[in-house]
């Protein structure tokens, strides 16, 4: 079978992406009533043709509650006329909702749709659906919102006044996707809905058995959809997110992206990154029921990059975060941080525990500030931290890292399996005369830094430069002295520490003994992972 040109795949919702539940009944009389109801529904759905109550509900001409009211009355009248006894507790409205408003997500097919989109296919959900004004409306809205982010389009019949199997709705979808019928595959569980699509030239799949349908879709597209090897989650496009700005004080603002609804998660990135380093986590966490705020930390991207080095102390940055939360009216959040962002979230939990529901750090350990232990001496004693000493002189590292942004990011941001192809070491940087000295002039892209990612990082750092990001490193002793003033040396909020086995700088053994300072600590470990945990794993 010839592979379909990279065109479009259109998915039905109910019965395809959402599998219908099996109803169970407690008594024989309820079983009889359910059987009668199924027979009744077949006639009721077609009653009145395009002007019947079901068709009108799917075209948005009446609401779901109005349709259900008519359904209940008609079923009672139908049963009475047929001399069928219906138990008093049997509700046609409730049964319909259980049959058509509940269901289980067809995860393998959703994964297939995501994979096809990654391979260049346009994807669309085409569903006959109603305007839901019933108590179930929130659950339906959540489900549609979750699915919407994984497809190019969601076409709801009630919003456009057309429904399957009217031919004009299929033409509407083709126009929306900008494809020809012969370039399109359509999956539906009703043959009557597939018939006009097939007559127009679409390739169709009658969805009966989930495994068989997935195999047929794989055969048509020639894309591996069963036992998918590349199981990286969907990432978010910057243009498809809500962007916000909070003024912290005159001349200083924080940029963030936002997605989802629910308990608040605040994501704090490290060096040299951006909110974009959380691109895989943002949609996944939003789908899981959280409101996700991913920040451009001070000095990065679309946040302000003040010239004054004093703006970049941990004390000042934590104060900024408190103002950020205050202005959004958020009392508590769960903070998640990586690299320098990990330092920030530990300090928020230490100094502002009242604003922290829980805290999680990727790679970055919590190290208590003790008056007798100067961290500068520890940095000097650790060869892997020599780059931090190189960063101390203003202007030097800036010039090196800004000279060729593409080279900088292709050298620095590499997966653990890609590190062998590029010579890079954070030790002996001062002696070598630069962080990138010895690295290739034009290193190859890699699995966690593809061309689109690279261009976004270049765009962001053309705005901010490296002065702000490097200023974070220029307060080693000042941050230590501030840390020594904490009212407690222990972090008492629920905490998660995730270590990465292949991180050569923030090595897992640095977290040894954290339980002494973080009593409510949970640990996670990813052995085959380097420093860039969010994008590698």
Automatic annotation (TrEMBL):
Species, as recorded: Pleurodeles waltl
The UniProt record lists the keyword Zinc-finger: no
Keywords, in A-Z order: Acetylation, Hydrolase
Superkingdom to which the source organism belongs: Eukaryota
Protein's recorded name: AB hydrolase-1 domain-containing protein
Family in the record: Belongs to the AB hydrolase superfamily. Epoxide hydrolase family.
GO terms assigned for molecular function: epoxide hydrolase activity
InterPro entries (UniProt xref): AB_hydrolase_1, AB_hydrolase_fold, Epox_hydrolase-like, HAD-like_sf, HAD-SF_hydro_IA, HAD-SF_ppase_IA/epoxid_hydro_N, HAD_sf, PGP-like_dom2
PANTHER family reported for this sequence: EPOXIDE HYDROLASE
Residues of the AB hydrolase-1 domain: 263-536
Signal peptide: none
């Amino acid at each position: 079978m010839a592979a379909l040109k990279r065109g479009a795949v259109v998915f039905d919702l109910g019965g395809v992406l959402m599998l219908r539940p099996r109803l169970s009944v407690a008594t024989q009389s309820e079983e009889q009533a359910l059987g009668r109801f199924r027979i009744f529904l077949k006639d009721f759905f077609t009653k009145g043709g395009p002007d019947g109550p079901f068709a009108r509900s799917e075209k948005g001409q009446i609401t779901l509650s109005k349709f259900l009211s008519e359904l209940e009355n008609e079923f009672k009248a139908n049963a009475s006329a047929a001399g069928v006894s219906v138990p008093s507790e049997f509700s046609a409205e409730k049964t319909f909702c259980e049959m058509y408003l509940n269901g289980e997500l067809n995860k393998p097919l959703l994964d297939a749709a995501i994979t096809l989109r990654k391979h260049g296919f346009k994807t669309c959900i085409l569903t006959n659906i109603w305007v839901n004004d019933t108590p179930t409306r929130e659950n339906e809205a959540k489900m549609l919102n979750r699915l919407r982010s994984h497809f190019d389009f969601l076409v709801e019949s009630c919003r456009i006044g057309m429904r399957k199997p009217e031919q004009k709705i299929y033409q509407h979808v083709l126009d929306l996707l900008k494809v020809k019928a012969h370039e399109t595959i359509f999956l539906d569980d009703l043959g009557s809905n597939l018939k006009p699509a097939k007559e127009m030239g679409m390739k169709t799949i009658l969805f009966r058995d989930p495994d068989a349908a997935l195999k047929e879709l794989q055969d048509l597209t020639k894309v591996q959809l069963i036992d998918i090897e590349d199981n990286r989650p969907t990432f978010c496009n910057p243009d498809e997110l809500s962007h916000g700005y909070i003024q912290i004080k005159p001349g200083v603002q924080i940029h963030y992206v936002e997605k989802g609804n629910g308990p608040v998660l605040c994501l704090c990135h490290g060096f040299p990154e951006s909110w974009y380093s959380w691109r895989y986590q943002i949609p996944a966490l939003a789908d899981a029921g959280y409101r996700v705020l991913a920040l451009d930390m001070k000095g990065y991207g679309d946040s302000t990059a003040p010239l004054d080095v004093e703006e970049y102390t941990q004390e000042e940055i934590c104060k900024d975060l408190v103002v950020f939360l205050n202005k959004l009216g958020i009392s508590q959040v769960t903070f998640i941080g990586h690299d320098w962002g990990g330092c920030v979230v530990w300090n928020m939990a230490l100094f502002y525990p009242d604003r922290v529901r829980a805290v999680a750090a990727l790679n970055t350990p919590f190290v208590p500030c003790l008056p007798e232990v100067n961290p500068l001496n520890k940095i000097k004693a650790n060869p892997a931290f020599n780059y931090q000493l190189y960063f101390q002189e203003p202007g030097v590292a800036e010039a090196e890292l800004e000279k060729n942004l593409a080279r900088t990011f292709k050298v620095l941001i590499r997966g653990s399996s890609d590190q062998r192809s590029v010579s890079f070491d954070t030790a002996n940087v001062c002696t070598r005369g630069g962080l990138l000295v010895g690295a290739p002039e034009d290193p190859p892209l890699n699995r966690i830094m593809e061309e689109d990612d690279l261009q976004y990082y270049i765009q962001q750092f053309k705005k901010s430069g490296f002065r702000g990001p490097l200023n974070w490193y220029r307060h080693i002793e000042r941050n230590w002295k501030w840390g020594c003033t904490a009212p407690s040396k222990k972090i008492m909020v629920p905490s998660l520490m995730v270590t990465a086995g292949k991180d050569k700088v923030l090595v897992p053994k640095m977290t040894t003994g954290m339980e002494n300072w973080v009593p409510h600590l949970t640990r996670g470990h990813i052995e085959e992972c380097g420093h860039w945990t969010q994008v590698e794993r």
